[in-house]
């Protein structure tokens, strides 16, 4: 894809696409989709961008709440990234989740949009407590690839590269990418879309040694601190039927011109 062909970019998804882990509520969230929009804008000053993603949404909720508004915006490019919130729930059905994703792929491509999506990394390489989720991740990734192939959707294969589980790419909650992680995701999508100036450098290891992985009781203590700080509150919300996205709406629901960082409003 030439960057000159992309004028209207719409992002659908959950917290990763909203940008959690890259910025904060006070200064504003950036995230990989914002970063990708900025890359598009460097090659076409007329690029307009909308981000419909809302944290906490399952794939079905993304389809229900974001697909129709996205279609109304008539995107030339759309990204659809959802399913992580489904993976974390006790009752997970890979076919059901993939069905929601495929319905979005089908609807968007039928309207002429080019669509890109991501596969998910092995969560056990990010936090050992997530090891039981490994088969779920593999099953969902397989179905994403099949559905994408049926509709000509570009798949960004983040799951194949070891760097994606480098702790330096992740925020402390281990559920969201940090700023460097969002930067790498944006670079991965740009490369998959063959944007001018993109390459496979996003797949390369980070310079310098990664933080040493603790062993023994230190590792156990670290996992317990993580569970108390992040996993516990998440489970409590699930038990109460609440979501981190309750009462929230899309941060950028309309197609607006992309202002490059460092430029005047």
3D structure, described in words:
The structure is a single chain. With 265 residues, this protein is an alpha/beta fold. Helices cover 41% and strands 12% of the residues. It has helices at 15-18, 31-43, 59-72, 84-87, 94-110, 134-151, 179-192, 216-239; strands at residues 8-13, 23-24, 28-29, 48-51, 77-81, 114-118, 154-156, 252-257. A six-stranded mixed sheet has the order 7-6-5-1-4-8, with helices on both faces. A two-stranded antiparallel ribbon has the order 2-3. Helix 6 links the parallel strand 6 and strand 7. Helix 2 (31-43) crosses helix 7. It is globular. 37% of the residues are buried. Mean pLDDT is 85; it is low at 1-6 and 212-219.
Keywords summarizing the entry:
alpha/beta; 265 residues; single chain; globular; 8 helices
How many extended strands?
8
- Derived from helix and strand composition plus strand pairing, the structural class reads alpha/beta
Residue stretches low in confidence (pLDDT < 50, at least 5 long) are: 1-6, 212-219
Note the gap between the termini. Answer: 28 Å
* Form type: globular
Number of helices: 8
Q: Encode the helix/strand succession as letters.
A: EHEEHEHEHHEHEHHE
Q: How large is the radius of gyration?
A: 18 Å
The major β-sheet equals:
6 strands, mixed
Helix content: 40-55%
Residue share in β-strands = 5-15%
Strand adjacency order, main sheet = 7-6-5-1-4-8
Mean pLDDT: 85
What can be said about this structure in brief?
With 265 residues, this protein is α/β, with parallel strands linked by helices. It is 41% helix and 12% strand. The strands form two sheets. A six-stranded mixed sheet has the order 7-6-5-1-4-8, sandwiched between helices.
């Amino acid at each position: 894809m030439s960057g000159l062909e992309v004028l209207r970019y719409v992002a659908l998804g959950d917290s990763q696409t909203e940008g959690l882990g890259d910025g904060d509520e006070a200064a504003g969230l950036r995230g990989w989709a914002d970063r990708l929009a900025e890359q598009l804008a460097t090659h076409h000053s007329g690029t307009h961008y909308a981000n419909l993603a809302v944290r906490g949404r399952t794939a079905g909720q993304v389809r229900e709440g974001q697909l129709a508004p996205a279609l109304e915006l008539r995107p030339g490019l759309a990204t659809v990234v959802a399913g992580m919130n489904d993976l974390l729930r006790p009752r997970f059905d890979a076919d059901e989740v993939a069905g929601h994703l495929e319905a979005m792929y089908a609807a968007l491509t039928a309207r002429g949009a080019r669509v890109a999506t991501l596969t998910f990394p092995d969560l056990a390489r990010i936090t050992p407590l997530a090891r039981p989720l490994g088969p779920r991740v593999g099953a969902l990734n397989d179905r994403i690839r099949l559905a994408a192939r049926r509709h000509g959707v570009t798949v960004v294969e983040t799951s194949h590269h070891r760097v994606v589980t480098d702790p330096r790419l992740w925020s402390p909650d281990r559920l969201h990418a940090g700023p460097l992680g969002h930067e790498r995701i944006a670079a991965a999508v740009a490369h998959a879309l063959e944007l001018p100036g993109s390459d496979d450098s996003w797949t390369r290891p980070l310079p310098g040694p990664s933080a040493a992985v603790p062993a023994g009781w230190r590792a156990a203590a670290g996992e317990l601190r993580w569970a108390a700080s992040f996993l516990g509150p998440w489970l409590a919300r699930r038990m109460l039927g609440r979501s981190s996205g309750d009462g929230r709406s899309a941060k950028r629901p309309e197609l607006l011109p992309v202002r490059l960082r460092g430029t005047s409003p």
